[in-house]
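It is worth pausing here to work through a concrete case rather than discussing structure prediction in the abstract. The textbook approach is simple: state the sequence, then state the predicted structure, then interpret. We follow exactly that order.
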Amino acid sequence: MINTNFLPSRRMATYMIKLFITRSLAVLVALVMVLMMLDLLGESGKILAVEGNGEAQLWDYARLRLPLLIARFLPFSVLLGTLIAFTSLNQHSEVVAMKSAGLSAHQILAPLIIASAGVAAVLFVFNETIVVNSARTVNAWSDNDYEPVPPESNVHTNVWLTVGEDQLHADLAVGDERNFRMEDVTIYERRGGALTRIVEAEEARLNEAGTWDMTGLRTYDSSMNLVTTGESAIGLGEVGPRQITLAKVDATALNIFELGEAIEDLEAAGRPTSAARAGWWHKIVSPLSTLLMPLLAAIAAFGLARSGQVLLRAVIGMALGFAYFVADNFALAMGNAGVYPPILAAWGPFLLFFLVGETILIRSEE
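Step two, the predicted structure:
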């Protein structure tokens, strides 16, 4: 007899959800701990190389990086947790018993899809509240070579800006429109595609006239092959704070509302918006990737009874999940470069692997 209910019994659904959640969390904890230790080992030398940094700064780095690692590897942990759960169910012939009771593959997967939807909702909120704040702080800190970052808000690091033919770079830009400053500024002046001067300033501070008071100057003139120094100068009259803040829009460090406002500002300024729009859409699609994981791992559940190749099926399911993340990163890179439309860059891999998972699931039912 075929069971026409969308879900199996409440007890069976609860059992499968508990199996799914516990295995996924166990994998996530183990994976994040290993990656956190490797990340900390790789960055600890740079952190401790800065005078004044010590054990407290190492703990600060670990605290800031932990949410980013959780957000990045939670979907993959869900995939591995689902594979472990399905392998266990098949080894004990529980999937055979479910199918003998009249449940289809989609009905068996339904509790896991619902649990994955809950995980996706939690991940979205986690990304938009905790992860963006951690990303904003740790990116500014690392871009500043782990030297102390000013406590003010609206901090931008490693900023590049094109002004006509010239290029401007600032290690740090901070403040609002009335009290804005840049630190470690370098201006590359070009004429006809050739570099003519390099002007370095320790600090550039916006004055009431709309120009910049630059101090600690060091200038290299390529025509005379001469380096000169000076105490101060005034310049960069055509550059405003909004141009500088829009020069680097980091989607990972802005929540979805802030990023939407940044996109509107970029459009108003006539700047490219492809990368920002792709990042906006990816904020929605990235948590939803947890919904795909049970579908891609289903090959480990419904092919075992016929083939008996437990390990091979699990490896294929893992490979499908890994291929999705590779395709997702590739499409996002193409969207950032303007090669793919932003909505296609975000949703294309998701829809493609949804069709792949459904095809495998339907074929396993035949």
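Step three, interpretation. The radius of gyration is 26 Å. The beta strands are 155-163, 166-176, 179-191, 194-206, 212-221, 226-235.
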